[in-house]
Each structure stands twice: as C-alpha cells, then as structure tokens.
C-alpha cells in the first residue's frame, strides 16, 4: 500500500514539474505543430529599401526563440499581414518598420526583433506598452494588438487578433495557472488549451484571425 502511495505521489510530482516547465517556458517543441502551413516572409536585410532580399520562415523564428509559443505565432502572422497591407506586392525592408506592441511577452518581441530588428533600433522604432486601464499582470484580448508603420510613407495599420479566436475562459484559465501554488491539473489544462489555440492560429486564414483598422 505504501509503495502504491509513493508511486502515485511520484507520478503527480512528475506531472506537476513537466506541466510547470511548459508554463514557465511558454513554448513547445518545433515538431508539435505543422509550421509548413505558414509562408516565409521576404524582406530586405537593411535600410528602408536596401540590402539583400532574405527569406525568413517561421521555423527560423522558432529556432531564434528556442521553441514554439502562441505569442510567437501570432506575432509572425501579424508581421506577414502588416507587410501585405502596407507594402502590397513590394517587399518590406527591415529599417522601414516601426512597431507598437500592446503585449510585452518574449515570444512576440523576439519575432519582431528577428524579422525587423526594430527592438534593437530602440524607442523610435519599437515600443511595448500595456493597454489603457489594464492590470499588467492580467493579459486579455487587447494585448494582442499591434500597430505597424511603414516609415517611408508614414502609412500605418492596426492589427488585432479577433476575440472569437480565443476559447471561452482562456485568459481566466491562464491567470489561474500562473498563480503561485497552482495545481498540476489546472496547469495541464491550460497547457492543453494553449496548444489547441496555437494549432488553430496556425491554420486560420488572415481575415478570420485578425481585424484590420487604421490607428
């Protein structure tokens, strides 16, 4: 009997550690998702219209980040969508991007840096801030909003994830899983919900994933 109890205790602890590890990292392995559904982004490597034309895939961004996260996929798709809206059939240049992000998570920040180098260019080209009147410790749908500006023309587009993309109670579940002392069951439940959400975001068409407005 004691042996069975010890085994159950060990398995519960192992599930907790694995689940907590996923939650802390916020990302999963590259083989957990079909990233081939996402097109590579073509961009000039420097200046506002100069440098070599390079092709950057979402797999490249994942390797740069160290794993797949929901924020990473959203940011990658947001850059792709903004490029289409602001540059049309032309290819953007890294130095021509200005980005305002309402979510300061590492996944989106790393994608913006990897593709556009806007983060290291500083305050003039990249700014992360919280939505107005929001508790910074409680993210919500408004955090998944980005404003992209084409500096050479001063044209801008506001890209926001549609509210219908997220499952009901997703943000509440996230908040519960992030609490100190959260149990393995709620952590695992959130991880499963996040995985399903990421798969959904990869497969959605641009118009079903985002709302586009003028800022």
Topology:
Elements: H1 2-25, E1 41-46, E2 50-56, H2 58-65, H3 70-87, E3 97-101, H4 106-116, H5 118-121, E4 126-128, E5 145-150, E6 155-161, H6 170-178, H7 184-203, H8 206-209, E7 210-213
Parallel strand pairs: 3-4
Antiparallel strand pairs: 1-2, 3-5, 5-6, 6-7
Helix pairs in contact: 1-7, 2-4, 3-4, 3-7, 6-7
Key phrases:
46% helix; two-stranded antiparallel sheet; 60s Ribosomal Protein L30, Chain: A; five-stranded mixed beta sheet; alpha+beta; 8 helices; 215 residues; 7 strands; disordered N terminus
What features would you describe in this structure?
This protein has 215 residues and is of the alpha+beta class. It has a single domain, classed as 60s Ribosomal Protein L30, Chain: A (2-Layer Sandwich), CATH 3.30.1330. The protein is built from 8 helices and 7 strands; from the N terminus they run H-E-E-H-H-E-H-H-E-E-E-H-H-H-E. It has a 5-stranded mixed β-sheet. The protein has a two-stranded antiparallel ribbon with strand order 1-2. A hairpin with a 3-residue loop joins strand 1 (41-46) and strand 2. The longest helix has 24 residues, at 2-25. The relative contact order is 0.15. Residues 2-25 have low confidence and may be disordered.
